[in-house]
Design a protein that fits this description.
Elements (H helix, E strand, L loop, with lengths): L1 H11 L4 H10 L4 H14 L4 H16 L3 H10 L4 H9 L3 H16 L6 H14 L4 H15 L1 H8 L3 H18 L1
Amino acid sequence: MVREICLRQLAVRPRTRAELAGALAKRGISGEVAAQVLDRYDEVGIIDDAAFARAWVSSRHAGRGLARRALANELRQRGVDGDVASEALGELDEETEAETARVLVERKLRSARGEPDAVFRRLVGMLARKGYPPGVAIRAVKDALAAQSAEAAEFAEHIDADALADAENDLDRGSRSLD
C-alpha cells in the first residue's frame, strides 16, 4: 500500500522525498514504514532530490522566467535541502538571470500603456514578484525603456539604477528586521 501511494504520486509529476513523506503521513502511514520505503526508493534512484531540483530550476526559469530567489523559495517549500537547492541554483548564473529579465521586460513592454513612470513601476514590480533583485530589475526596465521611444528614453536617462537598487535593498533589510 505504501509503495502504491508513492508510485501514484510519482505518476503525476516528480516529487521530492519530503513531498512523498508528507503524502504518506496524510494517509496515516507511520514515519518508520515511510522512511524504509523512501530509503529504498532513494537507493534505486526512484526519488532523487538533486535531479528534481535541477529540473525544477531549469523548467521554472525557462517557462515562467523565475529568478533564483523565487526558485529557492519554491524548492524550500517542496522540502529540498538547502545545499541541494544551492547546487541546482548555481547552474543559473547572473548573466542568464539578467538576460531573462530583459526578455520578460521587452515582451511586456510591447503591450504596456501609460506614462513612462507608471510603466517603469509596473515592470519593476513584475520582475520583483518573479524574484529578481532590485538592481537587475531596475536596469532591465531602464534599458528597455531607453530603447523604446524618445519620451521613454528621456525618462530612463534620469533613473539612477544603482541608487534605486540601494534604496530598495535598504527597505528590504529594514522590513526583515521588523519581522
